[in-house]
Design goal:
- This protein is of the alpha/beta class.
- It has a single domain, classed as Aldolase class I (TIM Barrel, Alpha-Beta Barrel).
- Helices cover 28% and strands 23% of the residues.
- The chain has 6 helices and 8 strands, in the order E-E-H-E-H-E-E-H-E-H-E-H-E-H.
- Strands 1-2-3-4-5-6-7-8 form an 8-stranded mixed beta sheet.
- Helix 1 runs parallel beside helix 2.
- The protein starts with a strand and ends with a helix.
- Bound molecules: iron/sulfur cluster.
- Iron/sulfur cluster binds next to loops.
């Protein structure tokens, strides 16, 4: 759907320069999704893997983040292998709803209630990032945290449109349960893509 060199705005790698490959297509259907234009893959042209790798190389980015849409709807072995061959660190952003294929240096699973994450995806996560929209989402976060590996980084992130109203719940919750860390969509505050 789009390719751009920017700054990772969320989670563990916040603030790092990264090239984003956003794959079109998603059937998860979050009502607060901020990239709804990614859902219909037929609206976006196919690109050859070689072309994608060339774009990343041209940027000079050290990290490439494969995001979506829901990128794990596709087999990602060939793409990730081609990127790894260039010495890039390859990260993934996924809801975890599909089997994760490919080779990654960092996997962020952000589970969604509309299409539950697979246990196997949660177990592969280096980072669990749960979006908080209402109070029930804290229970949802804890339930997902039961299935991640021991050293998985745990993040709670306010849903953007509700950030002002849910932030005090999040800060209160993290003070009580400091295994969680707050993640902010800093790219939106900083007005960068
Ligand atoms: Fe949007 Fe991601 Fe939800 Fe898909 S999984 S609807 S891309 S927020």
């Amino acid at each position: 759907m789009e390719l751009f060199y920017s700054i990772q705005g969320e989670g563990k790698h916040t603030g790092k320069a990264a090239f984003f490959i956003r794959l079109a297509g998603c059937d998860v259907g979050c009502h607060w999704c901020d990239v709804k234009e990614s859902w219909n893959k037929s609206k976006h042209p196919l690109k050859h893997i070689k072309e994608l790798v060339q774009e990343v190389k041209k940027s000079g980015a050290p990290i490439v983040i494969i995001t979506g849409g829901e990128p794990t709807m596709y087999p990602l072995e060939k793409l990730t292998q081609a990127l790894k061959k260039e010495g890039l660190l390859v990260h993934l952003e996924t809801s975890g709803a599909y089997t994760i294929t490919g080779t990654f240096d960092w996997i962020c699973v952000s589970p969604k209630k509309r299409k539950l994450p697979l246990k196997e995806s949660l177990q592969k996560a280096d980072e669990l990032k749960v979006v908080i929209y209402n109070k029930d989402d804290f229970n949802w976060a804890e339930n997902n945290a039961l299935d991640v590996k021991e050293n998985c980084a745990l993040f709670l992130q306010p849903e953007w449109s509700k950030a002002n109203s849910v932030m005090h719940w999040i800060t209160g919750y993290i003070k009580e349960k400091p295994k969680w860390v707050v993640s902010l969509q800093t790219h939106k505050y900083l007005n960068i893509p």
